[in-house]
Specification:
The protein has 88 residues and is mainly α. The chain has one domain (2-79). It has 2 helices and no strands. It has helices at residues 2-30, 42-79. Helix 1 packs antiparallel against helix 2. The radius of gyration is 22 Å and the shape is rod-shaped.
Length: 88
């Protein structure tokens, strides 16, 4: 259970970190803010931060899922040694 929790936390942390690094560049490149810049920039900033938070949440979920899959694959291989069967 400890491995599961640690791999979940590490994967979520890595996914969030990668999303926090990549998402602002992707948002600036791909999306057009729904509001025009005028006197107040509050609406475009709120929109961009909402997109950034969604990207970080998805990064955490995907990172945690990948870490869990990798953990199960690694520890299943280590524990799947066939036991010696006595020959008659």
């Amino acid at each position: 259970m400890k491995r599961f929790i640690w791999s979940l936390m590490v994967g979520a942390g890595l996914g969030t970190g990668i999303a926090a690094w990549i998402a602002p560049k992707f948002i600036a490149w791909y999306f057009e803010p729904p509001a025009q810049y005028g006197i107040s920039c509050k609406a475009p900033i709120e929109w961009a931060l909402h997109r950034l938070l969604l990207a970080q949440i998805w990064g955490a979920v995907i990172g945690a899922a990948c870490a869990i899959v990798i953990t199960f694959l690694v520890f299943r291989r280590k524990n799947s040694h066939p036991e010696a069967v006595p020959l008659d």
